[in-house]
Task: structure prediction
Amino acid sequence: MEIDSLSQSEKDLLLQNAREAIESAVRKIKPKPLDIKVVPVRLQQWGASFVTLTAAGNLRGCIGTLQPYQPLIDDVREHAAAAALEDYRFPPVQPDELAGIHIEISRLTVPQPLQYSRPEDLLVSLRPRVDGVILRDGLQRATFLPQVWEKIPEPADFLGNLCYKMGAPQDLWRRKHLDVSVYQVEEFQEDA
Result:
């Protein structure tokens, strides 16, 4: 399922709201209320997003959801603040860092199960730079956004690193049939 693109003004509004949510959260001030009546209809529809923060080109936080459960604009606001303060891999963003934080938003399609018989089938079924991938083994789960293919372009390495992220041995995908789902994203970011 391919994603229908947002207009530039819709993207700009999401980025503006993400920036405001981050600044409010980091400065510990109440965020400006959102007047839903002036929000474009497509941003009022339920949507799933990930918000990725970088500083000087390095990851500084990334939080999101795989399934839509609220209006897209609210989802972006929530995950922008969470990426700044709640990503367990990083200390919370501090006020003096705000000017150097760069925001990227990924709007997700609904994940679809990927049917496969043998581990080798996965290697040819995945579409590098197109598919985000979710691996699930019982209660363990991990995902990589499609952008991760830029750093890990080989499907076998991609799956191995995803197993590692899930807390499993890197070769688990070769030894055990895992639940695999794929999704696509529309990615956009602040101007440099």
